[in-house]
Amino acid sequence: MVAVTVAAAVVAGVLLITDDGKGSRGGSSDDVVQGPPGAPGPDGSGGSQGPGNLVTPAHSSGPGGTTVVIGEADAGHTLDVYEDLRCPPCASFDQAVGPTIAKDIKAGKYKVSFHFAAILDKSMGGNGSANALSALGAALDVSTDAFLDYKAALMSPKNHPEESKDSYADDNQLLTVSQEVYALKTNASFREALREGTYDPWAKKMIADFDASGVNSTPAVKLDGSQLTGSSGSTPLTAAEFTEAVNKQLKGG
Fold this sequence. Notes:
Blueprint: E1 6-11, E2 14-19, E3 68-70, E4 78-84, H1 88-107, E5 111-117, H2 119-124, H3 128-142, H4 144-154, H5 171-178, H6 182-185, H7 188-196, H8 200-211, E6 217-218, E7 220-223, E8 226-227, H9 239-250
């Protein structure tokens, strides 16, 4: 066993990681729980069940179901978005740029691959990042629209907690926020999955993938593998700067 020190700091609107042990994380990504009968597998069909089996949401794919791509399958470009659901700079990014990303997805400008970290859980204690991600997995199991709408609600000025508050560690708070999403308001399977922590192991896998990605700050965005930056040289934090960076990249820099 190796002791790992993880620190996070908000610098210029970006949450940074300093890590003495790359790829380290709290808990094991292999600590899984039994999912409910009929829970969907990585391809959205079937049900992975039985002791020790990982339950993955519908509309996920890839090893462990940790690939979450939303948009037209034949879109010629891929936007990678890296966020921590507990991170205030990520919330600011989502509030400013999220509607533009949603519009671009519908227009077929690119498809989006989402990646999630738990930086604040590690640096400040608690489990709000991971718990909110588990709940977001339950929303993804309902539909991709429910996923996008719930993520927007979690990141909204009304709901997103201050950095020092681990509000999303509380399932009741996550359920309260879900009432703002039409597809989730009366969805019993979503509520059960959230309460039971059905997608807790999946959330751990998602976080482990982020830890192994080499990305060391959130929010971060890449288009076709190339980092997007605004005028300050960091992640574009306004819709105008984001669109400018995207269009520049699409035109070949």
